[in-house]
Amino acid sequence: MVKYANRMNLQNGSEIRDMLKVLSQPEVLSFAGGMPAKEMFPVEKMMEAAMKVMKENGADAMQYSSTEGFLELREQIADRMVKKQGVKTDADHILITPGSQMGLDFSAKIFLDKDDVVLLESPSYLGAINAFKTCEPRFIEIPTEEDGMIMSELEKILDKEKNIKFIYVIPDFQNPTGREWSLQKRKEFIDIINKYEVPVIEDNPYGELRFEGESMPTLKSFDTKGLVVYLGTFSKILAPGYRLAWVCASTEILEKYNLMEQAACLQSSTISQMETARYIRDNDLDAHVAEIIEVYRKRRNEMMAALDEYLPKECKFTRSRGGLFTWVVLPEYMDAKELQKKCLERKVAFVPGSGFYPNGNVKNTLRLNYSTTAKEDIHRGMKILGEEIKKMLK
Length: 394
Ligand code: PMP
Description:
With 394 residues, the chain is an alpha/beta fold. Helices cover 43% and strands 15% of the residues.
């Protein structure tokens, strides 16, 4: 009889597995994923970068390398952090990780003992919830509204709860809601965390994918006390297959991430790092990101127009100004899982929102992704979604 650790009881991957099975059918129109559009991957240019790396430093590229990561890449990242995110930093404050998902896993292991408290937005990213769960914390969900977390609710919890180890937030075009925090909320949030001196994990895979409006300062850019741990990634601005992301944090905190990475996997892939650094050296990454934005903006526009046309007025949805997702709130009596079954019968897939609430109990929300779907398919899919919702109206 094989005996597993208790933490395995907390990992419930079955819904995702079921969904992946459905999505593997080619005729299914999927709004369920969260993937970048693969036609936007710079395959040719990456091939050139890879050739140069292999010709010039092939053996080094195939060798082990340092845990903190390839210096040229850390310098390029630090430079982007200064220019794009307004964060005063340098290569010494960047640690390369194999994906932000690993950064989330390290965050859990660094900060959480069993029953410690994690505060997070309600709803929040399912992958983070699962990563944190392995350390068996208690989740306290902070209510949110269209422009971010409700700060008075956050303060109430901070006043009341002991053992809060960190607050996990996605202020830019959040997964799952597509929402963006207002400037006001960002400033209030920083004042609050400075007062209570709680660490913050700011997860920002989507911030550069802005379709409209002024760019917003990151929480990290306001951080004067070294409380904010910033997670960035190449997954959505370049390609997720390289598995490259980074942590930007104070010297003290970054050292903990470094130790955790050593213990978990030694380092991120040397060859991925060298090829990516070479790509950035030889190409204009900003111009590439601008091209991605153009494509996603059109798809977002189609999605918004289709939702306006087909959803009944009883539903609300986010007019995402960036990122990959929008979020639909159904009438309270509706169950998105029921709706999901009906839609799947008609070959349309989405993710019911319930998994994004770590403590469960919200049934009437769903996430829609628009980054990988063609214009006509967006309309066809939303028409079916709208029809099925209308059938369930009371
Ligand atoms: N955080 C959020 C909010 C995400 O949406 C994702 C990817 N879907 C990740 C982290 C993980 O990204 P990576 O590919 O860098 O591991």
